Amino acid sequence: MDIDERIQCLSQSRSPYVLEALNSPVKWWGWCAKAFEKAINEDKPLLIDIGAGWCHWCHVMDETTYKDPEVVQLINDYFIPIKVDRDERPDIDRRYQEAALLIAGQGGWPLTVFATPKGEVIYAGTYFPPRDGMGLPGMVRVLRAVLDAYRSRRDQIGELIREISNAITSSYVSTVTDNLDIGVVDDVVVKIVDMYDNEHGGFGMAPKFPQVTYHALLLYRGFYTGSALINIVRETLIRMGRGGIYDQLGGGFHRYSVDSGWLIPHFEKLLIDNAELLMNYSEAYAITMDDELREIGVGIINYVNDTLANPDGGYYASQDADVDFKDEGGYYKWSVDELRGLLSNDEFNIIYWYFGIFKFRGNEKAVLHRALSIEEVANKLGISINMARSLLNSAISKMINARRQRKSPRIDTTIYAGWSSAMAIAYTMASDYMSINGVIEHSLKIIDFIMNNMYRSDGLRRAFRCNTLSLPGLLEDYSYTLLAALMAYSHTGDRKYLEFAIKLGNDIVDKFRAPDGGFYDTDMPDEPMTLRIKPIADTPNWSPNSLALIALMNLYRVTGIDKFSKEVNNGIRALYSLAMRYGPAASSYFIALDWYLRDPPKVVIVGDANDDFIRLLRMALRTFRPGKLVIPIISDSVDDLLMDNSIRAMVNEYRRKGSPLAYVCAYSACTTPIVNEETLRNVLTDFMRDRYA
């Protein structure tokens, strides 16, 4: 009976990472009530393994630690082991990561948690080898120590549980603040600049993650305050794009760099990271018009379309770091001998300098990075730039074809609503600011897929895999999908997208609203985890509460529905003091605060969908301004959805004049009607600009 229940419990997950546990000698359970009931009935502690299909050290631990006979016997005899995918259940991961930070001073994946049968943390760490080694305690020793503590020191465990619970709860305590200070946004900017790495770009020391919300905040403030902040972002994005963290052949970014110079990556590629980075590259290009930024952005798009695209819509979640856990990142590495055998002498000489082969040690396999520009390579070899480019293109073509013959890292074909919606937003930005053809169609296909396949009568679902839906949507799913639906409406004026956005907005308020302001990350507690939290820290991806605040803010700016404005008002004030404690780690909140207090411009375009209307709409979409919102109103198609009296007045003016009109509005003021697209571009760029500095 236990075997059937255990397999049924595991099979509730759609995660390949969790389902692989069916083949493990460890008798893994999934995250389900039956697993906790069994632990309570048998009075056994839990071993909770939180990882992901893309995680190198998770695979190492599965193939070594969890196949060691002594480890397997100890776990199966004395513990109830539970397997969790952090991509599928970020809510579970978030809570246990905080406990791990309190206990061990670090988190990450794999996250190895020992807990009471009620899920209360006893001890936590990350990677444990089977036996002591690498400066780490072995799993055998850890298992025995936890078991001894659980059996003989219950009082001490109880005290530890209370301390951890109190610490986590207090970390989310925030008092409502009525006096909001816009100056704190620039204070956070100063703190971010203080962390800037002048030598390599980026922020802080190794390991180095792309800080997408830092990039966004600096770009938005730099647009108004001067080029220094913009140059920091531009230099960072270029250095990243030249490094090994960026796949020089296939495009797309790996998750992070283990060194400060962006040269040696952790090799997993996640959809959400590439989506949020594409947003950065698109907006940075819109401001700087630096072609290298556009080239890197195109590389992200090519990677996602070639590798992560679901033919029916939506995008797959991630690509694994490895093919073989014993050869970390082997798919992406090259040796000198391999390259010499593949390329002509002239081609090899080009890539020797261009891709930094001259830095390789002996015949080691290493990661490519752009060490010199093609102009520098041509000068070094004494050939023309055109000849150098031709040889480089020929070499890259051969290397790509050779790499395609290798077995590629596995794709997690799960489609997460929030992550795919983030890519839809990124694609629309790339279309608008980089003028990349065809990607807007991909964006609309994503939103249509989610509307038709992932939203049901009881709300949005988080995951879709093998034609099966699983899990209620989380706050991040609803928020990113709402933002994507509004983006789809901005580009089409299609009523169905605005209706969907309003439906999602109502869901966010009804399902996630906290009584004291802000939003919980889940719509209801998941036993035994009853702790309700309002995540505001960036990870470094945008935080769920910041996304929700911006999404509802924009929905109110389009519709004028007071319900959404009220929740934004409450949320901004409820989370302000908490964000002040986090500082730059809550940069996405400070973007929301900035837009809440400074009221970014919105462009309203009213008229029939004729050529003049489309020209005005395209110009509004392609003109960059931080936080800009474009509202196309085609005839009377959405009259009943709009409660904003100023927009209704614009519609009436159009009906009186009979030709398309555009208005730029900010700070409760709007321009007179605009009929020329060049005039619209100039006005949108400069309207009330001094109010934002």
From TrEMBL:
What Pfam families has UniProt attached to this entry?
A: Thioredox_DsbH
Source species, domain of life: Archaea
Q: Which parts of the chain span the membrane according to its record?
A: none
What's a GO biological-process term for it? carbohydrate metabolic process
SUPFAM superfamilies assigned to the protein according to its UniProt record, in alphabetical order: Six-hairpin glycosidases (SSF48208), Thioredoxin-like (SSF52833)
Q: Which residues form the Spermatogenesis-associated protein 20-like TRX domain?
A: 9-168
Q: What is this protein called?
A: Spermatogenesis-associated protein 20-like TRX domain-containing protein
